[in-house]
Write a structure and sequence with these properties.
By secondary structure, the chain is mainly α. 70% of the residues lie in helices and 3% in strands. It is built from four helices and two strands, in the order αααββα. The model has no long low-confidence stretch (mean pLDDT 96).
Length: 138
């Protein structure tokens, strides 16, 4: 299957899941979060494209959380600070940076990235005939 079609499908899955998480957690979302979610999901999927399957899963999760946090900071700078859309505000959350990212959210991203990495690998295996996922925990 063409790479751009596969990536498009995975982008749609990731964007949909991200928006769903936001709706469940805070009751609403914004279309920009769909774009951010799709990009984050693709980024999680590329962890196992660049690193070997022997990379400990907990390290993959840490890398995933760092990627998502960085993408949230970039997106927050664009949509909240530059464009003034006020999509989210972490100013009341401890250990925040510019009200756009915070340590508690990054910890949540650590655990959700594990689910995202596994889901991406499973989808690639089941629907796109890629390698069967296998992980080294530590």
């Amino acid at each position: 299957m063409k790479s751009w079609v596969k990536n498009g499908i995975l982008f749609l899955v990731g964007g949909s899941i991200y928006v769903l998480i936001e709706i469940v957690y805070r009751g609403w979302s914004h279309w920009s979060m769909f774009l951010l979610g799709g990009i984050c999901f693709l980024a999680l999927g590329y962890i196992n494209r660049f690193l070997s399957w022997d990379t400990p899963f907990i390290l993959q999760m840490l890398i995933g959380a760092a990627i998502i946090t960085a993408l949230e900071l970039l997106t927050g700078y664009i949509v909240n600070i530059r464009l003034g859309w006020h999509v989210w505000d972490y100013s009341r959350v401890p250990l925040n940076l510019c009200s756009q990212i915070c340590l508690p959210a990054s910890i949540v991203w650590y655990f959700l990235s594990g689910i995202g990495i596994y889901l991406d690998d499973w989808l690639r295996w089941k629907f796109f005939d890629e390698d069967k996922p296998h992980y080294k925990i530590l």
